[in-house]
Amino acid sequence: MKLERLNPDQFKQFCEFIYEKSGIRINDKKVTLLSNRIRHRLKAGDFEDFDTYYRFLTSQRGADELEGFLDAITTNETFFFRTAKHFDWLKNEFLTELIGQHRAGQREPSLRIWSAGCANGAEPYSIAVCLAENAHRLQGWSLKILGTDISEQMLAEAREGKYKERAVEAIDQKQRRRYFHHRTEENHWAIRPDLKELVEFKKHNLMDRISQGPFDCIFIRNVLIYFDRDSKRVVIENLVKALKAGGYLVVGPSEGIYDMLDPLQRLSPLIYQKPDEKIRSASSHGAEGRQR
Fold it and tell me: For site-directed labelling of 149, which of 74, 77, 141, 215 has its Cα 20 to 30 A away?
């Protein structure tokens, strides 16, 4: 039987199922894309048609297939240092502030950063490069980067840490020599083990609270564009709860969440901070002392 594409009823069924399991809302214009991705799962499992596959997927017997299905639907490729100004802020203003707080006795020498919806790992590894470039300033610090995604396929690629030339175009030659091995015969760039050690990858659905944390900084970029407003509110609530007081949320330009970030203070169009009364009070007292 030749499968062209999902009919309207089938498309609606699959979209509702995807939303229920991941919080991701599929755009009505994505019928062809969704049809193509589901068709690959049909061929892999030798299913006769879309309806047969849907019945299996939503049955108890289909529990093991759910992971592969969500992988096929949510797979996303990204590249290093996407939106470079975020990483410039991270390695300059952000780290300088935290180091200053430590020297003032306001924090321990530890740093935890979460890349939420990390796809193939380019974002958390970009963060790792920023920290490694500041190793002299962070000597003696405990540094942990967590990358999470709902797709096991993406997490497997992230853990492997191998990237094609187009993914590393924004990385200069000095950084490439220091943090990557160039595999000429395979035509890819592989992350060096010492940089890999900074990053841990775990499967996580953003609709759920995360057990790790709290975090000094959370990156969530080009992820929530796939969520509807109700799901976005749930995710934002989870992210804010996972932030330390004084921690930062770095968002993408197309997330559509800016009216949902009231608990946070807007520092720039894409960077928000969770208020920390202790640090604010200490800074205020210090300023008063200098004025006397």
Answer: 141
Residues whose CB is less than 8 angstroms from the CB of residue 169 and which lie 6 or more positions away in sequence, other chains included:
79, 80
Mark out the alpha helices in 121-228 (DSSP H runs): 122-132, 152-160, 173-179, 193-196
> What is the CATH number for 51?
1.10.155.10
What single-letter DSSP state applies at residue 194? Answer: H
pLDDT tens across 12-38, in order?
Answer: 999 999 888 888 888 788 898 889 889
Question: At which of 41, 56, 74 does a domain end?
Answer: 74
The parent domain of residue 176 ranges over 84-283
**263: its two tokens:** 């608990």
Q: Which of 7, 15, 105 is nearest to 69 (CA)?
A: 15
pLDDT tens digits along 146-204? 999 998 889 999 999 999 998 999 999 999 999 999 988 888 999 999 999 999 999 99
Chain centroid to CA 163 = 17
Per-residue confidence band for 74, with pLDDT thresholds at 50, 70 and 90: low
* Confidence class for position 279, pLDDT limits 50, 70, 90: low
Preceding peptide of 8 cis, ω within 30°: no
Q: Does 50 share its domain with 184?
A: no
Residue type, 156: A
- Measured CA to CA in angstroms, residue 211 lies from 97, 214, 245 at distances of 26, 9, 17
Find the radius of gyration of the CA atoms of the chain.
22
Q: Answer yes or no: do 107 and 69 share one domain.
A: no
